[in-house]
Amino acid sequence: MRFNYSPISISLKRRLLMATTPTSPTPNSSSISNLIDSNSSFGGSQRLRILAQQLRLYKPPPSHTENDEIDEQKREESGGKVVSQLGFAQSATPIADPERFTCKKAAVLVCLFEDNVGGLRVILTKRSTRLSSHSGEVALPGGKADEGDANDEETATREANEEIGLDPSLVNIVTVLEPFLSKHLMRVVPVIGILSDQQAFTPIPNPAEVEEIFDAPLEMFLKDENRTSEEREWLGDKYLIHFFDYKAENKEFVIWGLTAGILIRAASVVYGQPPSFVEQTPKFWVPKYVKKGTTMR
């Protein structure tokens, strides 16, 4: 299966070479050279190796800060904790009644590779229409954690191998983003990996789970082009759901919801800049009692 390519702008390429995230320290030229030399087995271009080292320095923002005292009374009154659309640290966010609310764990792989003109692209799937949930939707490779998974990285790469035939040994995991809260109140952890040798990967979709495998330019998720949004509400708090229209090999895809939110965040971290549109990701409340099957509408 062939991947689709599109050029990346010269200005973005330059920014990517220089970019570090706001929460990451900026390595000097000598330290970058040392890092590259010590990771020569990584493969790929020098640009990919520099990017990998920069992403390894990334530290997710804390779920709660010292300024949260303002909201403490509200938390106590609600009988729960505040979580955000971008996610929360499960260990730091106890639920008032764990027997009534169990946050399931999942991880997805944000697998990046370079196209033939130096642009970064991300591997995506279209879920099988035969699946009982999210059928026919665009998603990142990934799924629920198994008891035998050592960590989120193993969950993401194992699922990617099962879904699209991506050998974990081909992917260099460089960082893990803060967890997201899914529509079905699942804790989803995005794991960013780099595929340095794209030619070594032959996509093999699992027909039980995946209908199609394609890729899209990562920078697309920072632009306002081909993007629409809808306002939703969760327990009285409004937020935006983003939709990106994308065409590949004469096929049209809509990338939206959780997948779009994760890719917006991943692109922001990789390129070291916010999107050119308003995300509107306010805080959400997890109530004291959540019935089975409750979803964010």
TrEMBL record:
Cellular compartments per GO CC: cytoplasm
InterPro entries in the cross-refs: CoAse (IPR045121), NUDIX_hydrolase-like_dom_sf (IPR015797), NUDIX_hydrolase_dom (IPR000086)
Protein keywords: Hydrolase, Magnesium, Manganese, Metal-binding
GO molecular function: coenzyme A diphosphatase activity; guanosine-3',5'-bis(diphosphate) 3'-diphosphatase activity; metal ion binding
CDD domains (UniProt xref): NUDIX_CoAse_Nudt7 (cd03426)
Region (Disordered): 58-81, 134-155
Record protein name field: Nudix hydrolase domain-containing protein
Domain of life: Eukaryota
Named cofactor requirement(s): Mg(2+); Mn(2+)
The Nudix hydrolase domain, residue ranges: 103-259
Biological process terms in GO annotation: acyl-CoA metabolic process; coenzyme A biosynthetic process; coenzyme A catabolic process
